[in-house]
Amino acid sequence: MTIDVRPASVFEDVRTLLGPKSPGANVCWCLSYRIPSRLNNELRGPARGEYVAELCRTGPPPGVLAYDGDEPVGWAAVAPRSDTSFARNRKIPHVDDLPVWSLWCIRVRPGHRKKGISHALIAGAVEFARAHGAPAIEAYPLDNGDARVDLTMAYAGLRKNFERAGFTHAADTTSVLAGHPRVLMRLDLR
Length: 190
What we know:
Layout: E1 3-7, H1 11-18, H2 37-42, H3 46-57, E2 63-68, E3 71-80, E4 101-108, H4 117-131, E5 136-139, H5 159-164, E6 168-177, E7 180-188
Parallel strand pairs: 4-5
Antiparallel strand pairs: 1-2, 2-3, 3-4, 5-7, 6-7
Helix pairs in contact: 1-3
């Protein structure tokens, strides 16, 4: 199996990874960290997907997708931190004033897990950020040690996967997800 990671510019492929089974459902669509909370609360049902479709049409795309052949099998959200709620988050510190990019969500479709796709997504997100001039990229994964993590809450990623990709621990945070502390991991791209 060869995994190809590409910019998430094809909305139908993004829908495959993030969209609801029922068109009117209020699923995340990976918007909760991307847009101000007021807008996040106002967008309901199909309006959420329409917002993401617009992100896919404009530049840069809202993240990267992993493909197994032509089938989309994974998603990673990556964008300039200044364009996300991490720019104002009180629980996740800023290490310095660099205009870093944030990588905050990794999702692999059921039936495709345990095949290295999350590792390919991290590498693809790093290259995407580098290609768009990011001086560094940050992630805010769970520091779960060897403890199991509920798959619905594993979207933030796991510290060990970011360490494997060359990220280093940059700071502790006061953010907790699924009972596990989150840490700020960073990779310098300069």
